[in-house]
Specification:
about 210 residues, mainly alpha, about 75% helix
């Protein structure tokens, strides 16, 4: 039986999405082919029809997760041109910190496994991370602080992503809910300083409204 190109793409998308959930939750070492096919609702034959190995599926899941983050930021920038960063930081350190690990952001959840991955996966991750940095940088204000260069938005974007990713990692790892909230709050305030006083004022105003 021949399947249509649309059906094949749908099956591949299901496998990538399932792989993303499994690897986020179980780690690369904890998610085998059987776990991936079961989560995707496909056979082993269907899996190997799209991927030669678990490492290829992992690479696809990582790239899909980073692309999802990049496209989400792009959409947010388009709908909230002035306060997008405040909204993004609140969502990232709120829902994305507390949701099921399988639905968490790929950046903090999968990067540690990428460190131990093959060269092809690390190269692909690097290229996608650069695109993510560019997307974030394009939405940040110019930094006119002494000692900063005209192109410092990219540096700010790197700091912002590292800050948020690291903050979520620490906040998820601790067992004390109050400490988790405190980590998220402090990291959020530090991240918003990258956008200047207006972002902090907007965040404070939003908190006062609730």
């Amino acid at each position: 039986m021949r399947y249509s190109p649309e059906h094949k793409q749908e099956t591949k998308s299901k496998i990538v999405a399932a792989a993303g959930r499994v690897f986020r939750k179980e780690g690369y070492g904890g998610g085998g082919i059987e776990a991936l096919t079961k989560a995707a609702g496909v056979t082993n034959g269907a899996f190997y029809g799209h991927f030669k190995s678990k490492s290829e599926a992992f690479r696809a899941a990582v790239l899909s997760g980073l692309e999802e983050l990049r496209l989400g930021i792009a959409a947010l920038k388009g709908s909230e041109q002035t306060n997008w960063l405040t909204t993004f930081v609140g969502f990232y350190l709120g829902y994305k910190r507390t949701c099921d690990l399988g639905e968490s952001c790929a950046l903090p959840s999968l990067s540690t496994d990428v460190m131990r991955a093959d060269d092809d996966t690390r190269a692909a991750y690097t290229a996608e991370l650069k695109r993510l940095v560019d997307e974030v940088a394009a939405g940040l204000p110019e930094n006119d602080a002494p000692g900063t260069s005209a192109g410092s938005q990219k540096d700010q974007a790197i700091v912002l992503l590292a800050m948020l990713s690291g903050g979520v990692t620490l906040a998820r790892a601790v067992s004390d809910p109050e400490l988790s909230d405190r980590i998220a709050h402090l990291v959020g305030q530090a991240a918003l300083r990258l956008a200047g006083p207006k972002a902090l004022d907007s965040a404070h105003s939003g908190s006062a409204d609730h």
